TrEMBL record:
Record Pfam families: HATPase_c, HisKA
Domain HAMP: 199-256
Localization (cell): Cell membrane
Annotated membrane topology: Multi-pass membrane protein
Protein's recorded name: histidine kinase
Enzyme Commission (EC) number: 2.7.13.3
Translocase in keyword set: no
């Protein structure tokens, strides 16, 4: 059987209470017994002395022990709560009121007797009970002299065995009834208080447990369940509930992001598969034609040129796929250094000069003398500018212009790549940096491209700790702007 937290707490506290109550009852009974013994001994403290002074058999010394035994027996009949003993100065019993078979000791320790005689105010004092080898009882004592000679002690036990037996029977019955009644009443009261207390304490835990089970059954979709609004109190369970709500919201957001990312990856794989299949199928077709006898009037060199073009397109796409995967894996290293920005820009423009000349597009830099020293990763900055210029060349018609402008600020330089191309629709601007997203201005474009250039550019911009912005108008061109740090801030 499995017990809930509420049941375990109730059983534990009840057990502790029972142990505490038992210890309390034992302590109170022991204290009551000591107090009662002190009172009785104080009440009968002079009993033995009065008997010794008033009785002729003891007043002038003891000579007739048989007569003294009869006297003790008569006194015990008159006072059954007392037992009478006469002991010599060494503690040996000479005569007593009890029957011979009932006496277990033939001598007693005299130290308690002498202590009570010398210090009658320090009560209670317990002396040895001749009827028991272990039990001690309160007593009254008086020395008996014959002239100046000590003959012994009159030793009176207060609380005879008969009185103890009757008292024990009465007390046991009364105490049993009282103890039982008190324990039952206290247990019922305790259970009622504990059940109410623990129910109040464990109710939030039960609600939290049921809420988590409901969320788990709904695949952690907190939108489909009623969220618990925990009060803002200094209560640990309420704080745990608030943390669980925050944790579930985070899990729900992450699951939504993972779902969206997974959907994007599936689409990306579908697009990439199509893009890989197209040049590969074309390449395979032309190679098969070359392998066989080509039709008359067809030059094999033309087939080889087309096959080489498809092969280069396939290689470019594969290279971009690997580059994008490497950047997204987080394993790309960044090496910042100080270099001349103008030299890098003119080197990049020289690389694209022939391609721009064939497309009848002009390339320019503003200001022409851009002798600026910057602090960045030169290889990644070169790749960023190359991607942006290549993208501008692809979407700029003949007689167009591409300009790289640099604007200096206090701690950085703003670099803008501007073109006079076809532009981008405002609705499509937020998506152009997504992998394999093709804007409407790319449809029908006869220039080969993989569609991953801007996605790679966005990842590289993040690596050099910058941010790229786009301004564009349809039919007027586009502008890509980002910042890099000045060399003065590298320290």
């Amino acid at each position: 059987m499995t017990f809930s937290l509420y049941h375990r707490l109730a059983l534990t506290i009840t057990g502790v209470f029972m142990l505490t109550a038992s210890a309390f009852v034992f302590w109170t009974q022991n204290l009551s017994s000591i107090s009662r013994s002190q009172a009785e001994q104080q009440l009968h403290l002079g009993l033995a002395e009065h008997l010794a002074q008033d009785n002729p058999l003891l007043k002038q010394g003891v000579y007739d022990y048989k007569a003294l035994e009869n006297l003790f027996h008569t006194l015990m009949v008159l006072g059954p709560a007392f037992e009478f003993y006469f002991v010599d100065p060494s503690g040996k019993l000479l005569t007593y009121s009890a029957k011979s078979g009932e006496v277990k000791r033939q001598s007693i320790d005299l130290r308690p007797l002498i202590q009570l005689i010398n210090e009658p105010d320090k009560l209670p004092v317990y002396g040895e009970d001749p009827r028991s080898v272990e039990q001690n009882k309160i007593f009254s004592v008086s020395p008996v002299y014959n002239g100046d000679t000590l003959q012994g002690y009159l030793y009176v036990i207060i609380g005879s065995s008969i009185a103890d037996s009757i008292s024990a029977q009465i007390k046991s019955s009364e105490q049993l009834a009282q103890s039982t009644a008190w324990l039952i009443a206290m247990a019922v009261f305790l259970f009622a208080i504990l059940l109410l207390l623990f129910r109040t304490m464990t109710r939030p835990l039960k609600r939290l447990s049921q809420f988590i089970q409901t969320v788990e059954q709904n695949d952690f979709d907190i939108q489909s369940v009623d969220k618990i609004n925990w009060p803002s109190k200094h209560n640990e369970i309420h704080l745990v509930g608030q943390s669980v709500n925050s944790m579930l919201e985070t899990i729900n957001q992450q699951m939504s992001q993972l779902t969206a990312i997974d959907e994007q990856r599936r689409k990306l794989l579908a697009h990439l598969s199509h893009d890989l299949r197209t040049p590969l199928a074309s390449l395979q077709g032309y190679l098969e034609l070359i392998e066989k006898q080509p039709p008359k009037g067809i030059n094999e060199q033309e087939y080889l040129a087309i096959a080489l073009k498809n092969c280069n397109q396939l290689k470019s796409l594969i290279d971009q796929i690997f580059e994008l995967a490497h950047l997204e894996s987080g394993q790309s290293n960044v090496s910042f250094e100080v270099f001349n920005l103008g030299e890098l820009i003119y080197d990049i423009l020289a690389k694209f000069a022939l391609k721009a000349q064939k497309a009848d597009i002009s390339l320019s830099v503003y200001p022409a003398n851009c002798d600026f020293t910057v602090y960045s990763d030169i290889a990644k900055l070169e790749r960023i500018l190359s991607n942006l210029i290549e993208n501008a060349l692809r979407h700029t018609p003949a007689k167009g212009n591409i300009c790289i402008s640099i604007c200096a600020t206090d701690k950085s330089y703003s670099i803008a790549v501007q073109d006079t191309g076809v532009g981008i629709s405002p609705k499509e601007l937020p998506y152009i940096f997504e992998a394999r997203y093709q804007a409407s201005n790319t449809r029908g474009c006869k220039k080969s491209h993989a569609g991953l250039g801007l996605a790679i550019t966005a990842r590289l911009i993040e690596l050099i700790k910058s941010e790229i912005k786009v301004n564009s108008r349809l039919g007027q061109g586009s502008e890509f702007v980002f910042q890099i740090r000045s060399a003065d801030t590298s320290q």
